[in-house]
Amino acid sequence: MQERDVDVAIIGAGTAGLSAWQTARQYSDEVVLIEAGEPGTTCARVGCMPSKLLIAAAESAHQAREAVGFGIRIGDLGIDGKAVMARVRRQRDAFVESVLDSMQRIEPRNRIKGHARFEAPHTLRVGDDLRLHARTIIIATGSRPHRPDALHPAGDRLVDSDGVFEWEDLPESVAVFGPGIVGLELGQALARLGVRLRMFGKSGSLGPFGDQALRDYAERAFNDEFYLDPAAQIETIARDGDQVAITFIERDSGQRLTERFDYLLAATGRRPNLDRLDLENAGLALDDKGVPFYNRFTMQCRRADGEGDDGHIFIAGDASQELPLLHEANQQGRIAGHNAGRYPERRAGRRSTPLSIAFTDPQMATVGLSRDEAADRFGCDGVAEGGASFEDQGRAVVMRQNRGLMRLYAEHGSGQFLGAELFGPRVEHIAHLLAWALEQKMGIERMLEMPFYHPVLEEGLRSALRDLNSTLLQGPAMTERCLEYGPGG
Ligand SMILES: Cc1cc2nc3c(=O)[nH]c(=O)nc-3n(C[C@H](O)[C@H](O)[C@H](O)COP(=O)(O)OP(=O)(O)OC[C@H]3O[C@@H](n4cnc5c(N)ncnc54)[C@H](O)[C@@H]3O)c2cc1C
Ligand SMILES: NC(=O)c1ccc[n+]([C@@H]2O[C@H](COP(=O)([O-])OP(=O)(O)OC[C@H]3O[C@@H](n4cnc5c(N)ncnc54)[C@H](O)[C@@H]3O)[C@@H](O)[C@H]2O)c1
């Protein structure tokens, strides 16, 4: 058994692990990055990038179909599934390659291949042949798709998001289980690429929305394109020839139907990769799901033997189960890297405004506090709500993308902006403006003083802000758009 002493050992070479390495390396030459699987990060291999590549192809098909609404005839639409998947995989490989290139900056002796697990609080066993003694350790092991037992009867026809990007051709049909962000992004893209699709959820949840009005609106909008039942009644799932047969109660007719699909796509959430780390040897306090308690400003895990969070083990990225998003993994990795590098000194890192965007059409986004979180913090009477529809918004009408709704929350009295849920065309941009406004701690009146061009989608945001301002009793209600701001403004 080879033994080695290091200053910082980072488990997992994903986005969080790489950003942790980059920062911890500023403090020591002895910072090792351990990777058990294929390097290249979840984001580039099976996450953000390949999913957006599939969505881009689907958008193109959708625009071609929609062109007729502008008086433009394109003729018969042909979708070459093999070519679509070839481009997805080719571009995906290029993104992975760029990550691998940047990893070359890490000295080979500090890149360790193998599965790491704890033998003791300061000792990691990597594979069969290496034992590492580390002054500090960062857990950046990411997450993996969860496949509930109920879906296992689908056998080898059961895939998850990792499997989709290995397809060499588009299937004829897919049943998607889970209308979360992964299910909606991939499901809508597949439907737009001509795949026969049904989407089944459980308990009524839909994407990231907490606001019932947005959930209802989004459910209707998606159902215009493909079958979606967020609270589905599934009776049986069985392997049938080369397919999977699903018996379910159809949402509107109440009929019992049995349909066959090429694949059952499990988009039923993700679980942190903490179960094979032998965390019981790490001396950490764990919650009932086995996730370490940690301080979100230092990313320092709490020791099992005390109340404090002053241990030498840190956590970052999807493994922390806080907000499984790329920019969060990056930020958490940076904080963990700095604190592990300069341990035992520690500093609180900066955590930015919560921001999440689903690349569906219309897009879904959440910023800052949800309505329930705002009510918990300020009391129900302390929170004002306002909103606007995209249905009559000028620029959205021009583009034939006038579907969607915005809900904004602010604090009564101060007029402080608190958060928003958005469903609408390209709301990724409005979500960023709102996140930046939150970072600046802006009030609704000040946000209304910002410039708004004409005609742009952001004028819809102005309508929502006006509505919220009048609920706050800080300004007049919006009466008629055109009179004040020009058509649709
Ligand atoms: C389909 C999909 C689409 C997504 N789209 C977006 C998006 O558009 N925008 C966005 O912000 N986020 C998106 N995400 C989420 C985003 O990809 C993740 O939040 C992010 O990649 C997490 O990074 P990470 O470093 O925590 O984990 P990872 O990149 O998964 O890295 C963890 C690494 O640890 C390794 N590892 C695990 N256990 C061990 C061990 N014991 N020993 C050694 N190595 C180990 C793993 O092999 C892995 O390489 C998407 C996710 C999915 C699945
Ligand atoms: N655009 C993005 O930023 C993006 C894209 C994809 C993923 N992500 C990240 O990945 C995380 C995981 O996404 P996800 O969609 O896999 O998980 P999720 O937890 O958001 O959604 C899972 C969905 O599956 C449903 N579900 C659970 N068990 C089920 C069952 N047996 N049958 C039917 N439905 C079931 C849940 O009710 C929920 O609606 C997200 O929270 C997000 O942070 C981000």
Automatic annotation (TrEMBL):
<dbReference type="InterPro" id="IPR036188">
    <property type="entry name" value="FAD/NAD-bd_sf"/>
</dbReference>
<dbReference type="Pfam" id="PF02852">
    <property type="entry name" value="Pyr_redox_dim"/>
</dbReference>
<dbReference type="GO" id="GO:0004148">
    <property type="term" value="F:dihydrolipoyl dehydrogenase (NADH) activity"/>
</dbReference>
<protein>
    <submittedName>
        <fullName>Dihydrolipoyl dehydrogenase</fullName>
        <ecNumber>1.8.1.4</ecNumber>
    </submittedName>
</protein>
<dbReference type="InterPro" id="IPR004099">
    <property type="entry name" value="Pyr_nucl-diS_OxRdtase_dimer"/>
</dbReference>
<keyword id="KW-0285">Flavoprotein</keyword>
<keyword id="KW-0274">FAD</keyword>
<dbReference type="InterPro" id="IPR023753">
    <property type="entry name" value="FAD/NAD-binding_dom"/>
</dbReference>
<feature type="domain" description="FAD/NAD(P)-binding">
    <location>
        <begin position="7"/>
        <end position="333"/>
    </location>
</feature>
<dbReference type="InterPro" id="IPR001100">
    <property type="entry name" value="Pyr_nuc-diS_OxRdtase"/>
</dbReference>
<keyword id="KW-0560">Oxidoreductase</keyword>
<dbReference type="InterPro" id="IPR016156">
    <property type="entry name" value="FAD/NAD-linked_Rdtase_dimer_sf"/>
</dbReference>
<feature type="domain" description="Pyridine nucleotide-disulphide oxidoreductase dimerisation">
    <location>
        <begin position="357"/>
        <end position="463"/>
    </location>
</feature>
<dbReference type="Pfam" id="PF07992">
    <property type="entry name" value="Pyr_redox_2"/>
</dbReference>
<comment type="similarity">
    <text>Belongs to the class-I pyridine nucleotide-disulfide oxidoreductase family.</text>
</comment>
